[in-house]
């Protein structure tokens, strides 16, 4: 996992870095005069957030409505209570966590606050979804910031992407190099992880940053880890495991977890519903 704060700060200094029937009806949030230029809009910090220890973003699904309580996406390992166990799934846990909302330039424009952790896990994937005490419409009215949209389809190998870190106020540009059948790190194993080309040399504190497809402008994954020292399958040194069980270590290569599956598990009112048809997010154990 991409650790925040002291270790990450040291790394940056050394590197010289400065810089579904039950679902709600789909709604087009793009103003008519913006549709023609939507595909060429530059990716910036608008809609991203800084957590106390990680990065994140205000996100919506294609079916989210303006009056719905907004959601913040980050990593499961960024939870304020510590990293979930390998098989743990958190659902509807009260939270008052705060988030710094950023504008396009990376300046803070508002403080957002959660009411609960709607969903979080490090089983098969590494995500957390916080429900806020404000709606998308309220956020846009007070700050002018719109939520980022989660893509409903699987990302494509070779696609140009940007990893937008609200914690560091830094944007990394690269491509999707491929996908890891299984990505193993310590006690955790993730499925079908996105592997970046080397240009996305993300550091600690970028955990939870949205991975945005530069053509469609939608979130296709959430940044979560990278192999720092060339070790094999240890914490901060994930390894890839293919269908035959063969292990590959790629030192200094970084990874993200796909997010299109989230869109199949959000129902009316932006509520996580793990019983929706097509929802394959891990469920809590009885």
Mean pLDDT: 90
Secondary-structure element sequence? Answer: HHEEEEEEEHEEEEEEEEE
Low-pLDDT ranges: 5-38
Corresponding CATH architecture of the largest domain = Beta Barrel
Tell me the number of helical segments per DSSP (H or I, 4 or more residues long). Answer: 3
Spatial strand order of the main sheet = 1-2-3-7-6-5
Q: Please state roughly what percent of the residues sit in beta strands, choosing from under 5%, 5-15%, 15-25%, 25-35%, 35-45% or over 45%.
A: 35-45%
How many structural domains?
A: 2
Query: What is the CATH topology descriptor of the largest domain?
Result: Thrombin, subunit H
Q: State the shape.
A: globular
| Helical/strand content category | mainly beta
The radius of gyration over CA amounts to 18 Å
* The CATH class of the largest domain: Mainly Beta
User: How far apart lie the N and C ends?
Assistant: 28 Å
Q: Percent of residues in helical segments?
A: under 10%
Described by strand count, sense and barrel closure, the largest sheet is: 6 strands, antiparallel, barrel
Query: In total, how many beta strands?
Result: 16
